[in-house]
Hints:
This protein is α+β, with helices and mostly antiparallel strands and 206 residues long. It has helices at residues 17-25, 47-54, 118-121, 191-205, and strands spanning 6-11, 28-34, 41-46, 64-68, 71-83, 88-96, 103-112, 125-128, 132-137, 146-149, 158-160, 171-172, 184-189. The protein folds into 2 domains: 6-96, CATH 2.40.240.10; 103-205, CATH 2.170.120.20. The protein is 17% helix and 39% strand. The strands form 3 sheets. Strands 1-3-2-6-5-4 form a 6-stranded mixed barrel. The longest helix is centred in the last third of the chain and has 15 residues, at 191-205. The chain is elongated, with a radius of gyration of 21 Å. The N and C termini lie far apart (54 Å).
Amino acid sequence: MSNVFEFVAECRDRSGTTAARGVRREGKVPAIIYGGHTAPQKLVLSHNEVVKHLEHEAVYSHVLDVTIDGKTEKAILKGVQRNPARFQILHLDFLRVSMSEAIKVHVPLHFINENTSVGGKKGGVATHSMVDVEVTCLPSVLPEFIEVDLAKLDVGESIHLSDLKMPAGVEVVALHQGPEHDLPVVSMMSSKVTKDESAESSGASE
């Protein structure tokens, strides 16, 4: 198996829905790579190899090597289309990157110390509003994930986007759009409130 951050592809001449279906019947995945200063290029990849790569969370927030007929380009994974009824990858979108130009990528959030937090010790329940955050940075400093420490979070408190500790050179995209976009990432709710809300929901459904 190739490196988890390398996608080996071949050029695909045919385009359209019929051609894409033919590619999938062959056990392969149609894809496209675009961006940069080069024309978009249609690709085809091994479905089994793609599935193995996508099992790794880091693939979604790493600069990848896309090797096309032996030539390697730097890119990020911008889109994955899946068949909701079958365990099948339908299409991949790769965006070429330049190591000297900033990129925008959704990076996963890793929450720590939830059970041992100030609010957690009081029986509070953490409510997650986000599972990832869009950041902008140079490809060389793109983080694999952003850690969110709940240790000091008390009942009734929230951690907002502006509270996240970002690595040097990495910025949250939403915060460039104004203070009204400083949304909560996680909130510590009282377990009593949670139970009351559940009871109300049950009563409303009866």
